[in-house]
Amino acid sequence: VQLQASGGGLVQAGGSLRLSCAASGRTFSGYVMAWFRQAPGKEREFVAQINWSGGTTYYADSIKGRFTISRSNAKNTVYLQMNSLKPEDTAVYYCAARPSSISDYRYWGQGTQVTVSS
Q1: Which side of the chain, N or C, has fewer Cβ within a 10 Å radius?
Q2: Residues with Cβ within 8 Å of residue 4, at least 6 apart in sequence
Q3: What is the spatial distance between Cα 16 and Cα 38, in angstroms, rounded to a whole number?
């Protein structure tokens, strides 16, 4: 699976962005998809996850209620709608994929920069 993330940019605090991650190469619909992020000087952290059907989602506490993960299996794309952005959301955001049968994320996109100004 090849993943291509896009949609990052510079936004003021309180603003919104929508990230997209286009997948290609294998059957996208059978994969669990997720977003992670890494801020400067910090370790990469989990943001959100969605199962193959889109019916089950998980979120990090830090973004719960502000971010929404969704997917379109018809378009082989996963999205991250980010609202009420805060300066601490500034990071490089990565999409990742794994088969439902394993726990480790095996495939990673190249990352897209999100910068939130105060």
Answers
A1: C
A2: 21, 22, 23, 24, 109, 110
A3: 19
